[in-house]
Design a protein that fits this description.
The complex is a heterodimer of chains A (139) and B (152).
Chain A: H1 3-7, H2 9-17, E1 21-28, E2 31-38, H3 41-54, E3 63-69, E4 77-80, E5 87-90, E6 99-103, E7 108-113, E8 119-123, E9 129-133, E10 137-138
Parallel strand pairs in A: 2-3
Antiparallel strand pairs in A: 1-2, 4-7, 4-10, 5-6, 7-8, 8-9
Helix pairs in contact in A: 2-3
Chain B: H1 2-31, E1 37-42, E2 45-52, H2 55-67, E3 73-80, H3 94-104, E4 111-115, E5 118-122, E6 124-125, H4 127-140, E7 145-147, E8 150-151
Parallel strand pairs in B: 2-3, 5-7, 6-8
Antiparallel strand pairs in B: 1-2, 4-5
Chain lengths: 139, 152
């Protein structure tokens, strides 16, 4: 086991025990890449919490943690988890696109599709549809 | 007639357990070629765990498990030891720049520059914000990133 793998062993074991699928651990150019797929925000958070226990300011450059929530089906209920503000719904998957609706923190929205890792298309309870930044949605 | 139905019903309820045991034997035979892997059958689903040398050998094992009559699905919980090189993208690629802008849009105090072809992130952030930024930026796979923000 390499020095980097030892340093971040807690992250790797958290990924293994929380049920991350397709887990890949690989060292390249001095960076330990840990990637895999989670089926819920809780699974993903468990891995990121393990990183926080090692790197409390999330500023390490020698580890790249890429856990994506994947395989959600259309109709899945998602909770808006912004810090304070409303979540913008946009007409295209980009912050350059027009805002066509908003969802408040704590609201439930319905998944239409996981358009990319970053942007998911959702429908609000009042029927508005648009792209939301995935990091602000919990499942 | 009633007796016959009752016997049939009884058989059905026992069948799952019998099937799992039979399937376990077949599945274990397949997986035993890799001493670092193991498989557990539960309700007709194979839960495959352990370490594989590469994706090809893992995929081959999954295909063999799926081919066992009676296996409903294979749940992949494995780790790959050697994988193909991580494909990184250039931080100056306009598409990547847009994604970086998306990632830090809600944090006006944060600044991102490309210095020597590496992303460098500066500014004052909370721990929670630092985590969100790293989650977004790590996912872009742009190679080395200097997370030089000041976490308060």
């Amino acid at each position: 086991m390499s020095t980097l793998q030892q340093k971040y062993a807690g992250v790797i074991s958290a990924a293994q025990s929380s049920g991350i699928t397709g887990l890949q651990v690989q060292e390249q150019d001095g960076i330990l890449y840990i990637s895999g797929n989670a089926s819920s925000t809780a699974e993903k958070d468990a891995v990121w919490n393990a990183l926080g226990a090692i790197d409390s300011t999330y500023s390490a450059s020698d580890v790249n943690l890429n856990i994506q929530i994947s395989g959600l089906t259309s109709g899945t209920a998602l909770t808006v988890a912004t810090e304070q503000s409303n979540l913008n719904l946009r007409n295209l998957p980009s912050t350059d696109a027009d805002v066509i609706g908003k969802a408040a923190k704590g609201d439930t929205v319905t998944l239409i599709e996981q358009s990319s890792d970053d942007w998911w298309k959702v429908r609000t309870s009042d029927g508005k549809e648009g792209y939301a930044y995935a990091r602000y949605l919990r499942v | 007639m009633f007796i016959a139905l009752a016997v049939l019903a009884g058989n059905t309820s026992c069948k799952n357990k019998t099937n799992d045991a039979e399937l376990q034997t077949s599945a274990t035979t397949i997986v035993s070629s890799n001493p670092e892997a193991s498989v557990e059958i539960k309700d007709g689903t194979a839960h495959l765990s352990g370490t594989f040398e590469d994706e090809a050998s893992r995929d081959a094992t999954i295909a063999q498990l799926k081919a066992i009559p009676g296996i409903k699905d294979v749940h992949d919980m494995t780790t790959i030891r050697e994988v193909v090189a991580v494909e990184t993208v250039s931080p100056v690629d306009p598409a990547v720049q847009q994604k970086v802008a998306d990632a830090i849009k809600d944090f006006p105090s944060v600044k991102v520059e490309v210095i020597n072809n590496e992303l460098t992130i500066t500014g004052d952030v909370s721990t929670a914000q630092a985590r969100r930024i790293k989650e977004s930026v790590d996912a872009l796979q742009v190679g080395n990133v200097n997370y030089n923000y000041n976490v308060k």
